[in-house]
Please model this.
Amino acid sequence: MRIEGKEYRTIWFENNVVKIIDQTKLPHQFSIKELKTVNDAINAIKIMEVRGAPLIGGTAAYGLALAVQENNDLEFIKKSAKELIQSRPTAINLKWAVDRMIKKLTGINSDQLLNFALNEAKEICDEDEKFCENIGINGLKIIEEIYNKKKDTVNILTHCNAGWLATINWGTATSPIYHAHKKGIPVHVWVDETRPRNQGANLTSYELNEEEIPNTIIADNTGGILMQRGEVDMCIVGTDRTLSNGDVCNKIGTYLKALAANDNNVPFYVALPSSTIDWDIKDAKEIPIEERNSEELSHVEGIDENNEIKKVLIYPTKSKAMNLAFDVTPAKYVTGLITERGISEASLDGLRKLFK
Ligand code: MRU
Model:
């Protein structure tokens, strides 16, 4: 990923601290923040300085390494692991990464714990980067196919931010788009604004601008009419947890886009690394859906004329608001799952062919 001409990853360890790009300040300010303790990592996940399923997995892994650095007593490490897992419940990558760290650290001598923890956290991040790159290579084939038929710009609709900022690098939904652009295929992206936190407008559009990919921000409810008008060739979204039956949990509003895509014969793809597959839960009703503070709805943030970030209230002061952060798109509306190992049908059979 390139930001203002410089290569970055979204998270790295340097001089005994974890460094992250503070996403709450984007697109208006680019700032790097230091996480020094496991509590810093928990807080960064909770307030969404880092966000996106694979990146919160990577942050939780490094967060646990910070816990070991602070105090390598096993009880403290286990308590920290529990708190990390609880910090954002919907994205399965978080639990997956913490469980993997704990497995790696079990039975290791205390003088070696920190080395092992840092190596494993880096390994989790390196692996995610490689997997997201492969998702791009696999998803590119779909975009290429559409382009070869259409011989004109491929219009892709995406929801929320499943780009490099949501992962370690490349992104999931955006990786095929970046690969297509690098190959010279003309692409244009319809970017769902993604209320309430505007990850599409604030982050996806920012990323696409940095990569010089044409994109247009639309209000969340615009996708339907664009699909009816034939102005969307395909949808690609990310996911926070995909069940082994192919049901896809992702940012609130994804389900409505999938319904519109289905009604208009627009292919609807979901891009994910295998760390986002939940092999245990069988029924989507069991997925813990995060309900966030209603202030995310009632207030909006932007910059004023002095370039200062300001938050303002946009709702009647007496109104109540409700803020569910994710919804589930049933597998029947998903054309395919783009993974690091290939493209699979959204079903247990399809996923098993690739992963078990
Ligand atoms: O609440 P967020 O911003 O963490 O939600 C992120 C999403 O819904 C992404 O689509 C998902 O995590 C996939 S990221 C590659």
User: Anything to note?
Assistant: The chain has a mean pLDDT of 97.
